[in-house]
Amino acid sequence: MFFRSSFIARNLCLSSLHGRNFASAATDFRIPVINFANFRAAKSDSEKKETANQIVDAFKTSGFIYVSDHGIPHDTVSSVFRKSAEFFKLPEEAKSQLAWEDPRSNRGYVKIGRERVTQSADAQEISNLRNKAPDFKESMEIGRDWDSPWKNMWPEERTCHNLHVEMMRSIALGLDLSEEFFDRKVDQQCHNLRLLSYPSIRRSILDGEGQARADYGTLTLLFQDSVGGLEVMNPHTGDFVPATPIPGTIVINVGDLLARWSNDLLRSTLHRVVAPPAKMISSAESMTPARQSIAFFSNPNFDTEIACLPNCGDKPKHSPINTEEYIVGRLAATYT
Q: According to its UniProt record, what is one Pfam family this protein matches (predicted)?
């Protein structure tokens, strides 16, 4: 039964994209492709530090990177996309029996129009936005398998956690902290795996801008299909720049909590998903193609206090905040 398939595992392989950059019209905006094998297989501390500096430099400027040679097998990623598509093809009645219920668990099926992506936390403003422009996607949220109060609606194995730990180690080195600085702060796997489906839809329904958002946790690992749709805001100009899918890579971006942790040294950049080019179905109407993506939202341990890190400034810009309280509060506003 496809519910038992293995989800995103540890790493993937790509060919020779190391060193390529994808830029907007503004020459100072880059989403670099970073070969993470240079960190994972480094033979010296200096080799590790070189890659760590590349990652941190990118997170300081654009907040986004493409990661190649990360070790998650291509076959595993393909299997997840296939099983995700099978799930979303189930009848609405069957999917609705697994409905998302509570922001403390953040598990289950989210039907089209229920989530409203915005940076606002005001419930009335979110309600008005939802009524004006529903979010035309559906998703399935999956959390830790061993939580006793909150069981997965669709429990699956996954190992993106390992990549998250390694990325946080690279960030620690890039910030001149000990490599293991974050290990005990991210070891409880308080993450969420989100399967996303954007059905084919009439273009006239989607008139208007995409819904800009930033993510809540430390890092988001995004797997795109070939259709894409992700756009990243150039913080210097306010323009949105396509993050064009690159086969074999993962798009990784800084979340709000990591930005706060670093005293905003690392950038949590606004981004959105927009409709791909539509095909004409009549003289007056066109349809967008269906598309999928898979996001792994990485978080600190829920009991971790997020306060200004060493080496990130003498004057904290944010008050300390508890991880769980922050994330649950944002989720409650998003789905209310």
A: DIOX_N
